Amino acid sequence: MSQIDYGQTAEDHQAFLILVRHTGQHLCNRSFNRAWERIRKLNCIAIPGQKRVAWVRYKRTYSKENNEWGDFQAHRKVLGLVSIGQCTNSDQFEELFDNYRKVKEEYASTLFNSRLFVFGMNTDGSPLSDEEKENCNLETGEKSSSGSSRSGKSSPVHSEDSGVTPDLSPTEAGNDCDLTKTDAETDSNVNKPTSAISSRVEQKSAQQQKQSDLKPESESNVEQNDNENVSKSGASNEPPTSQPHSNSTKTESNSSASSEPATSRPHSNSLTKESAGAEVLFSPGLQACIDLEEKVKDFVTSIFFVLEGKRLDRSFERADKMQLLCAPFEKKDYVGLDTDTKSYRKKCQGRLRKHLGDLCLQAGIPGEAILHYQTAIDILRPVNDWLWIGACFEGICSASVIVRFPKSQTPTLRRNFSLQATRGTSMANDTKLRTGSIKTSYSNGYQDQEESPKSALGPDDIVEKYREALVHYSKFKGSGMIEMEACLKACRVLVVQRKYLQASDFLQNVVYINLQTSDEDKINRYCTLSQLYAQIGFRRKAAFFKRIAAMQCVSPQNPQPNWKLCHSLVMQCLDGYNICLDPKDVPTDCVYGWPVLQSRVLNELIFSARRTGNIPVAIRHLGMLLHTLFDILTTEDKRDLINTLQTLTAKSEGTTAPLALDSGVILPPIPLSNIPQVTSFKLIPLPPHLQPIKVASKVVKQDTGPFIFTPLSLGQQEVQSKTHVDFSWVECDMCEVQLQVCNPLPDELSIQQMSLMTDGVEIEAYPTSPTIPAESGPSLVKILSRPRSSGDLCILGYTTHLLGMRSQCRLRDLPELRDLRTTVTVIPALPQITLTASLPKVATFTTVGDGANVVTSGTTSIYAGQSKECMITIRNTSNQPVEKITVSLDCHPDQKEMQSKVFQWSQENLDAQLPLQPSGLVCFTVCIYGYSDFLSSKSSRDGSQSSEHSNPDEYDSKCVESLLRVEYSGGPGLEAGYCRHCAVAFSVDILPSVIFHSWEALPSESPDHCVLAFDVCNVCSQQVEMQYNIDDSFKLEPKQIRRLTIQIEKCKFPDPAPELDVADRLQMTKPPPPTISHYSQHLDGFIHILWSMCGTKSCGKMATEHLTWSQQQLELIKVSDVSWNVSVNDQSCSAYSIPVVCTGKVVNIEILITFRAGVSYTSAGLAVSCGLLTDHTSGHSRDIDLVTVLGSQSYQLTNLRHCILLA
């Protein structure tokens, strides 16, 4: 069965077909592939002495059925054979030569010349010595005696042709590799004399001589004519090895070889020339054969001259000797046909003309070939020879393409022919330009074209003639192969012309051609269609045929399904269906592609990967399906896919590492971001009492120069503000990220593990394992972590382990979460403390200041004037020492003075207990005082209200709330300048106890004392006992008012504080609070009024600092500027010491006047009087009239001094 060449192009009509075969079993595949690569590059060879070039197409396999089509189209005929083998002795050479001869006999009907390249022997044909063998093995890196190195398959090649046709399906490449496989080992220990090799080769040459004598007369005549033409056409310029063999040369070789003695016979060259017709070429190794390319050039040149002779011979062939050229399927139709008819002779003549056009095209004369094709059409049209007329049209199209599109023979610029010249030869001699097509050659390989011949078809005519050729081919059932190849050639021509729609018409015709071919051929056909559709931009149709080829690999009729190739072909069609391997390339804002088709293709990928046994790849494809097409799946589809995923992951866990396929394609990891769906991703700041706070630096900044303002934004701070959150985390503290997740699956979703992906600071992760109900709304998931160092921590995303598959979901790949701020600053470690208070905790309180830092609370009820203690305990619960603790009161500024009297503590006592080591305790006492002014709302602050005619007012209790703030730090955080704040919330209810209803100052009997009288009222609901003057006390019933008097020594008041000036008052936003009189504050230290409640055992002290004293009262209270001492008969006279005198005796009274320091008077008046006189005998007091005063009772004093004594 003929095999279709899906890689043929229109330019192949001008190329020689040379078969390159791997001969023998001793040459490893690697060496053959290297030789093949060197040979296949020689696709365009300049002919010495000619202005033409020979185009060559190399094949490693070619069927005999295809070779039979050589009469119909000359470029399908194998014109040359190059066999490459290896041997080390005569026995191996005999086996190698037998294989070579069999291949040559197979294609003997069309071969012009052949070569056998033998590696492993000297150039003269003698075996290599052991040292030469070792050197040869070192050069090639192979061991000739190792069968294992030859048993492996050869490396795949890109194309079987010489670079003209790059289209090859994967199966063709695989078949080529299989055909070059060798399994036998060589025998390196055999060393036979060279005469044995000579005799065997001479015998084989004699056999070939007999076979050539038995050839048909027509073939022998053609060979003789060809050889004669070669000898006539400048054969003197051709090297001896490039001359084509003939019968005469073989005879001469045999005779000369037999006349030489066996012992001195040169093996290689003389043997080749005389015995084998210049066919066998020896070389120690492939690398040692530096002239391999040159020998191949000579070989191609010899074929060219044989072809040129055949062309000239056919040009002058007589009409009576013309033979009818037939296509293979036509031979049976002409059996027994009358040959002596006009139509028969017309067919012979027209077909010969067409064949002559093929030869002209191969000989590099496309213009002359077009003329022959047109003549053949004119001859064949009257006899309705439609098949050959179609071949003529195709030939005209090929010749026109060669002329008009010389650059279409390779997809890239070809090297200049001068660069292929060998070392030591003239570049000018080897550079030959083809006439009629090339004008100028540039250094980069691009070649200008001359004006095309007038006989060449235009671009549109080429397409039209191709259509006519296809119409004629379609009339014959046996020409399906030719029709299909013509469609492909026409398509490639239209691709060069960029006429893509017309090219699609020809490709569509390929689909309609029905041929009974093998499954492998069908796969190649669909792959070729896919490649061509991709070239014309039909991506989806290209993917369709690639997918059909994949399905053909595993069709039920295929006895050997190839699931691996099926998977590879489906992978190649992903781009046509807009299926991206990388989930980052999938757009999320629109529908990309055809979801139903994409789902079907991905399911086929999953199934084919499972059949190949590649479970990780199947899991990766399944994850891609769930990631990209989850929204279009039905509930049953989702459930089936999840069950399939669980089944696959039970065999092999889905990883996050990229997977590499055999084709080199990398499958990136697929994140299951849809399962579960994350709707919110939020970094949670530390609790307020644990948040780090920057300590204000007390260092005075040095003046570094003038301040320069600029409105320009440098960008760094702006970028940082867009990525950083507005809070910080602390090293070694537990940090939290909250996610709102939804379960879109119809079943309950159990996540085995869910943690964070971070960059920058190393963290200790604490994964969570949530369970989300089926088709539920947002559920809160908390992920905890602990930073291990300080710096910038970037949260990249989250990782999940569910359904046996691990996923790494990055926030930048999620459209709704990509703009979040996910970078947080981690500061050095800080200690943590806990606060406990001895008072009961308060249920609710109205916070003052920042109440978020409150960690504990305390509440109590006290009476006005009562004091109570609260023990505060600080425990260090961290691994860092607490080196600094500062306690302050957080309250409103206008209440700060008042609350500072309610709450009091000792900072010095607290500092003495530092540093606080881990797990240590620190205690300090807070004294709570029931601060009050002890006044009713209607009491007059000057105390003028009468105590007899007024009732006590209602006195309400008041609540005092305040925060006791504790600022602490230590460890690395203190060095970095950070601290933490926590607070204790206090709620104190101050209940009324006793109030001052009125008060006044009275003179005392002693001039240096005064009496203070207070009317107190019991405003509480219990009996109160009042204590004053150390030993005086009385009891007060509720709402009872009683007076108490206290005699105090007159006071010397300090100077008052300076008042605020006008500027300070204007700067105040609020009016200043009422200040306590410094007189009252000073008197409060001399007045001690205590109260106690018998029922509650509560006691307290009444403060008088809020009482206001009038000026007259202050005059009585404060010390006078002048003081005096009166003595009677040298006895001091005072209210507590009254002198006793006798009646009728003179009493001497002395008065000592003293002025207070700082007081100065210029004059003063003194008057002395006597009040009452007490008679001790009767016990009654008498008036002053019973006392006679001797002298004046008043004095006018001048020239005053500090102290004056009067008698």
UniProtKB/TrEMBL annotation:
<feature type="compositionally biased region" description="Polar residues">
    <location>
        <begin position="187"/>
        <end position="211"/>
    </location>
</feature>
<dbReference type="InterPro" id="IPR058564">
    <property type="entry name" value="TPR_TRAPPC9_Trs120"/>
</dbReference>
<dbReference type="GO" id="GO:0005802">
    <property type="term" value="C:trans-Golgi network"/>
</dbReference>
<feature type="compositionally biased region" description="Low complexity">
    <location>
        <begin position="143"/>
        <end position="155"/>
    </location>
</feature>
<dbReference type="Pfam" id="PF26254">
    <property type="entry name" value="Ig_TRAPPC9-Trs120_1st"/>
</dbReference>
<protein>
    <submittedName>
        <fullName>Trafficking protein particle complex subunit 9</fullName>
    </submittedName>
</protein>
<dbReference type="Pfam" id="PF08626">
    <property type="entry name" value="TRAPPC9-Trs120"/>
</dbReference>
<dbReference type="Pfam" id="PF26251">
    <property type="entry name" value="TPR_TRAPPC9-Trs120"/>
</dbReference>
<feature type="compositionally biased region" description="Polar residues">
    <location>
        <begin position="219"/>
        <end position="245"/>
    </location>
</feature>
<feature type="domain" description="Trs120/TRAPPC9 first Ig-like">
    <location>
        <begin position="693"/>
        <end position="808"/>
    </location>
</feature>
<comment type="similarity">
    <text>Belongs to the NIBP family.</text>
</comment>
<dbReference type="InterPro" id="IPR058565">
    <property type="entry name" value="Ig_TRAPPC9_Trs120_1st"/>
</dbReference>
<feature type="region of interest" description="Disordered">
    <location>
        <begin position="127"/>
        <end position="276"/>
    </location>
</feature>
<feature type="compositionally biased region" description="Low complexity">
    <location>
        <begin position="246"/>
        <end position="264"/>
    </location>
</feature>
<keyword id="KW-0333">Golgi apparatus</keyword>
<feature type="domain" description="Trs120/TRAPPC9 TPR region">
    <location>
        <begin position="520"/>
        <end position="652"/>
    </location>
</feature>
<dbReference type="InterPro" id="IPR013935">
    <property type="entry name" value="Trs120_TRAPPC9"/>
</dbReference>
<feature type="domain" description="Trs120/TRAPPC9 N-terminal">
    <location>
        <begin position="68"/>
        <end position="407"/>
    </location>
</feature>
<dbReference type="InterPro" id="IPR058563">
    <property type="entry name" value="Trs120_TRAPPC9_N"/>
</dbReference>
